[in-house]
């Protein structure tokens, strides 16, 4: 960016904002340090702690035989090399995703353990931007039990348990709610306030299942972009959750050309009801950033910290956030420093630039509705499907001889009778 324009923006931000230093937002991982190693592997979790994350997460998936393990998605074809081995197990599950996939609940844990984890990038499919190929298949899968033991042994500030697709898993005979609550209780997470347990789901009926443990904090994950939260919807959220996770675009409006246009009031509304608000998810790659951030993920973090005031970041690169929080340059009130990492004012850059009007207006982002907040009660867990019964066969002969011998003897006798009859016919014909 031209220095003159950057100076104008800096002066504009300084003179239009009075910053207050609030409590540092929590640094929450997304699949551990999943920007460095394959998500939810032992190496990704260890890297997250080395990078000073406050909360490590486990998105719980289930194998066909009921083993709970950590992985961001149940589709193994995207996060492992399953497509090279189990392509014949691919299926369509529209309740989970549009595309076909190889799903964890169709493979046993023993089969899953034959796979290799795979480091992926959300940008590789569209623009071919990959992450470190040297670490592509590094690490080992982690079960829920191993994750809970690891977190307790490392004395982390907290853990986040993500629960999605619960109704569908129930239809497959997999009781993920009981599996998780039992595992947490076994490791005494329900009895001790430290480490803090955050249970996150996009389903309010799932969150209601954890109401009976006061120390658990329930987080409603609103995955769709929203423009606002009406009072009725916010009050309904409060009945089911202690906090909310919002997308970046639900907090700062951004147009199709990549410029921020406005600060939304979603965070202000929710925090006004004493709900904590987390932003998801942050990455380092410049293509994930609006132009306003100067291709610098640290400035985005500064903006969510000071301009917005979120309670936490959910990020694939926890080290970026921890470096910012440790830096003396993050104190925006200390204007005597030679350099301070200033946040942006959403919409400021686009007002300082001249650009042609867009050919088509950006589609409006809808407000959150009350109907979108409330979910139906969870279905009962179906009984696991039993293997098909063998086809009934005719009763075996009463003789003690093997059935195969009986059938062979009968065939020989029939053939002999036919041969005798044919010979008799030929002889009779020859004499006439």
TrEMBL record:
It catalyses: a sn-glycero-3-phosphodiester + H2O = an alcohol + sn-glycerol 3-phosphate + H(+). Residues 25-325 form the GP-PDE domain. The chain crosses the membrane at residues 409-431. PROSITE patterns: GP_PDE. GO terms for biological process: glycerol metabolic process; lipid metabolic process. It comes from the Eukaryota. This is glycerophosphodiester phosphodiesterase.
